[in-house]
Design brief:
The complex is a heterodimer of chains A (112) and B (115). By secondary structure, chain A is an all-beta fold. Chain A has strands spanning 4-7, 10-14, 19-25, 32-38, 45-51, 56-59, 62-67, 72-77, 86-92, 101-102, 106-111. In chain A, strands 2, 4, 5, 9, 10 and 11 form a six-stranded mixed beta sheet that branches. A five-stranded antiparallel beta sheet of chain A has the order 1-3-8-7-6, with no helix packed on it. In chain A, a hairpin with a 6-residue loop joins strand 4 and strand 5. The radius of gyration of chain A is 13 Å and the shape is globular. In chain B, the strands form two sheets. In chain B, strands 2, 4, 5, 6, 9, 10 and 11 form a seven-stranded mixed beta sheet that branches. Chain B has a four-stranded antiparallel beta sheet with strand order 1-3-8-7, with no helix packed on it. Chain B is globular. The chains are: A mainly beta (112), B mainly beta (115). Chains A and B meet through strand 4, strand 5 and strand 10 of A and strand 5, strand 9 and strand 10 of B.
Amino acid sequence: GENVEQHPSTLSVQEGDSAVIKCTYSDSASNYFPWYKQELGKGPQLIIDIRSNVGEKKDQRIAVTLNKTAKHFSLHITETQPEDSAVYFCAASKNSGYALNFGKGTSLLVTP
Amino acid sequence: GAGVSQSPRYKVAKRGQDVALRCDPISGHVSLFWYQQALGQGPEFLTYFQNEAQLDKSGLPSDRFFAERPEGSVSTLKIQRTQQEDSAVYLCASSLYGSNTGELFFGEGSRLTVL
């Protein structure tokens, strides 16, 4: 089955700096790659997603890039703010929208 | 409701007890998913419903786990004869569409602790 690896497991940045989280996947048939943000005691919330026919997608301070050849995708957060502190999960699926395979998460801490 | 609602939020069970976890998806959402999230890990897929049909139950870890969605809205995840390794947060998510695309909206989860 699909295996999603996520790095780093923890990331600490100063407010205003950029944060980058990287994921790799194993199944070349995967075609849907969402990123979720999970705050303590809450369920994961979708922040951005990308499909395999697109190389890059941006939404304000958040961007995601996809390299299908290398089977990896990355989340970029610019101008980080303390409220960006949370656990971020990448995921991959070959049947868009269900049976998502999640990475183990990255705990991001943004310090003022 | 405005979002996916799960109950109970917290459940403590003695080993061997049966538990039932409830999920109220967003009204009108066709797809419903259950995920299991162990401490410090990412969610792991358990099962998927499209309306009342259970289309994928490949992630259920054993035959002690059973899920249903009889009328295509509310779903219940039942765990029989609970064991300590069942301790986790059980997340329910729903999606408007039945296939491809569709943002998954997660509930806040039911935290199960088996003593």
